[in-house]
Amino acid sequence: MKLWHETEALEAFGAAELPPPYWAFAWPGGQALARYILDHPAQFRGKAALDFGAGSGLVAIAAAMAGATPVLAAEIDGIAQIAIELNARANGVFVEAIENDIIGAGKRWHTVLAGDMCYERPLAERLIAWLKTLAAEGALVLLGDPGRHYFPPQGMTNLATYTVPTSRDLEDRDARETSVYRLTPA
Fold first, then answer.
1. Range of the domain at 173
2. How far apart are the first and last CA of the chain?
């Protein structure tokens, strides 16, 4: 949480508006997805993977460690791009980080991964509509979610549930039950 407060303090001293450092935390959905990937590497080995809303790159790094290739980490926060590259290097893998809103891009990936992305309605609605299109085109679409308000349970198959540690600064508890879901093609 210290980083969060320091980011706010920089703005008070006239620094350019910095987005909150969401990328600096291992959110429950991402933790569950990373665990699932590392527990089932054969599902990802040799396949192109996209980590949407990659944050620090946790899920993308897990995919690369499982043998996915190439691995793309899409994250709109420019500072997160640096974190992704540093974290991938520290873990001995290569992840290509891009700073674009790619919702609506055509199918280029075998696997699309999205952790903890259903926290606000407009994003969840745009994202799920796009992910449904990708699933219908044959992509394996996996979501990690701890029960966020805008997570749509219909059309989802629960693949695994994990208890993951959380920070009291971000969540209302020390651990959270978080599931990995497969979006079933329509």
1. 22-183
2. 40
